[in-house]
Amino acid sequence: MFKKLFATSPGIIGVGAFIGVFAPLLQKWGNPGNMGVCVACFERDIAGAIGLHRAAVVQYMRPEIIGFVLGALIAAYVFREFRPRTGSAPIARFVLGTFAMIGALVFLGCPWRAMLRLTGGDGNAIFGFIGLIVGIWIGTRFLKGGYDLGRVQPTHTSVGWLLPLIMIGFLVLILVFPPVSGQNQSGVLFYSTQGPGSMHAPLIVSLIVGLAIGFLAQRSRFCTMGAFRDLILFRQIHLFSGVVALLIAAFITNLIVGQFHPGFAKQPVAHTMALWNFGGMLLAGLAFCLAGGCPGRQLFMAGEGDGDAAVFVLGMIVGAGFSHNFGLASSPKGVGPHGIAAVIIGILVCLFIGFTMRKRIA
Amino acid sequence: MNNMVDARGLSCPQPVMMTMNEMKKLGKGEVVILVDTDTSRENVSRAAKSQGWQVKSVDSEGTGYRITIVKD
User: Fold this and answer.
1) Which residues 11-70 of chain B have a CB within 8 Å of chain A?
2) Which of A354, A140, A312 is closest to A228 using CA atoms?
3) A80 to chain B: nearest residue by CA?
4) Could you say which of B9, B12, B20 has the minimum Cβ distance to residue A151?
């Protein structure tokens, strides 16, 4: 009964509402503005913490990400759904992850953060949201045309454990080298002393909320990309109802805790260049659709043993390194010096993947 | 011989798309779908019901499931 509960409409709605309440609360407890949970931003912060980029304002080993993977791992084991598998064009998934991150950092957020920005009053997120939906719509055209990265194979249990083990390693690192007030380095880890990377809820709170969301999302298959994809492809509202629940719950929570500030200018960790808010998210949405899941969902699938999802996650973390080292990521001032070129190249790469990787050719 | 959809190793939306195509092609009758994740099992069952088909049985097979759906 409990096992089946999450596959029902009340189950997915409950999970969406849970995320919608706790993400804004994480902001209240210390996370950056409209960034209670942002998978792209937090993986970018992790890339900064381990020195894959040296953007001083976005370096922190985010416990939420660790919690997402380990929470999903626990749920998968409790409900006997841990299925180690891999082999569906991992390199394509790595590349998609890389460009998904590049697109998301031009907008400044993953789909979850797009919703948090929207419900926090950030009007710029509207353009990102439309871009996301258009990107997913393009992805569904490829799916209808036979786009397919091929079948996975069952593999060793330990293969499925590799990303969870990496996350446990990250957790050990932050416990051994915790942030030291005013210092930008602690042992091997980098820490922001100012900017969004310096803003975070207490470690234990972030970890517990992350574990809870990871557990619940694994059970319910919560996916923001799948929500729009299934709506477009099948007129199915199951996953979409979870997204709507998140939006409503986050909006109400933001109102209650005084975090709703409508407007376009001077929104937290956001810029006002509408076209590139749209374009960045179009790239990200297309890449998520071609890879079969939003960044959150990829973490949860990696937690249940999906080695290809794990490769996508690593692609995103590496993509964050490129984004900041190459000046692709946006800042509150606007897009980075090479952000526009990166979005165009990313869309071309996604089109190449979409057009050439079809069933009849494989 | 039943109509068979082998969606093992594929992740969504592929299993659902293959099942949808088969249901559309046949209009009615019986289809057996093989999947190997719980997510696919749930999604295929949900898709079948949404198209007015009944899930007759779900049996464990190997590391996955054999789903039988019918429509009279």
Assistant:
1) 11-14, 16-17, 20, 36-39, 42, 46-47, 50, 63
2) A140
3) B38
4) B9
Counting every residue written for chain A, the total comes to 362
CA-angle at A354, arms to A352 and A357, nearest 5°: 95
Contact at CB, A83 and B11, closer than 8 angstroms? no
Asked whether the predicted pLDDT for residue A361 surpasses 50, the reply is no
Query: How many angstroms separate the Cα of B70 from the Cα of each of A65, A136, B22, B33?
Result: 42, 32, 12, 11
Average pLDDT over residues A228-232: 97
Residue count (chain B): 72
Say how far residue A102 (Cα) sits from the centre of its chain: 12
Average pLDDT, chain B: 93
Do A85 and B9 make contact, defined as CB atoms within 8 angstroms?
yes
CB contact under 8 A, A83 and B39: no
Answer whether residue A1 shows pLDDT above 60. Answer: no
- Give the whole-angstrom CA distance, residue A3 versus residue A294: 23
Closest CA to B16 of B54, B47, B39, B38: B47
Average pLDDT over residues A21-34: 98
> Contact A153/B38, CB-based, under 8 Å?
no
